[in-house]
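Recall that a protein's primary structure is simply its ordered list of amino acids. Everything else, from secondary elements to tertiary packing, is in principle encoded there. The following example makes that idea concrete.
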Amino acid sequence: MERADIYRMIQRVLSNREGTLERGITFSWTTDGDERIVGLVFDLLLDRSFLLNKTSLLTEVQEVAHLVGCRPEEIVHAFSCLSGIRLESNHITERLMTIEEATISGNGLISVTIRLGGWLTHQLHQICLRDALLSC
């Protein structure tokens, strides 16, 4: 599968409340949210995942809100939406990503650590493998 195909698949998850992906994997949103903000936050998380080569990412909500151009509470809600996207195949259910930790510092900065789910990690790994082979 090519990088563009994987991005289209991810875009389908972000653009529809429920549906079916490759090989019978179904998805559904368990929390409603602004698709535009959820998509922008997700893009930012994907960029950071590729840049840092990590599946667990610490993010500062105010920084993300500034980059996306919205209020911090909208970012918190977008994280909630993303962690509420459920994937299911052959009676195995997982989340697109999970919120591992959320903290508020003494000066009011909100930090959220998210972990990408297994399916998403696999898709991103496939992109990295393909990109590495193409650059050889």
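The radius of gyration is 15 Å. Residues 35-52 form the longest helix (18 residues).
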